[in-house]
Amino acid sequence: MAHVINDDCISCGACASTCPVDAISEGASHYEVNAETCIDCGACEDACPTSAIKAAE
C-alpha cells in the first residue's frame, strides 16, 4: 500500500529527499507519490512538516 500526499502539502521537498526509492516527485499542485515505486516505509510521512502524507486506504 502506497502513501498519498494531500492538499496540505507546501511543496517543501522534505519528503522527496527522504524517500529511499525516489518514489516522490513534484506534481502540478504539490508533490506526488508513485504508487508503483513506493515501498510503504513511512519515511516521507515522518519527514513531512505539515502532516500531508498518509498511508493510502
Overview of the structural elements:
By secondary structure, this protein is of the alpha+beta class. It is 18% helix and 21% strand. The protein is built from two helices and four strands, in the order E-H-E-E-H-E. It has helices at 14-18, 43-47, and strands at 3-5, 24-26, 31-33, 53-55. The chain has a two-stranded antiparallel sheet with strand order 1-4. Strands 2-3 form a two-stranded antiparallel ribbon. The longest helix has 5 residues, at 14-18. The protein is globular. The N and C termini lie close together (8 Å).
Please name the defining characteristics of this protein.
21% strand; alpha+beta; two-stranded antiparallel sheet; globular
What's the SSE blueprint?
Elements: E1 3-5, H1 14-18, E2 24-26, E3 31-33, H2 43-47, E4 53-55
Antiparallel strand pairs: 1-4, 2-3
Structural class: alpha+beta
If helices are DSSP runs of H or I spanning 4 or more residues, what is the number of helices? Answer: 2
Query: Quick one: how many beta strands?
Result: 4
The N- and C-terminal alpha carbons lie at a distance of 8 Å
Strand order of the largest sheet: 1-4
Shape label = globular
The mean pLDDT is 96
Order of helical and strand elements:
EHEEHE
Rg from Cα: 10 Å
Q: Hey, roughly how much beta strand do the residues contain?
A: 15-25%
Low-confidence stretches: none
Largest sheet: 2 strands, antiparallel
Helix content: 10-25%
Question: Short summary of the structure?
Answer:
By secondary structure, the protein is an alpha+beta fold. Helices cover 18% and strands 21% of the residues.
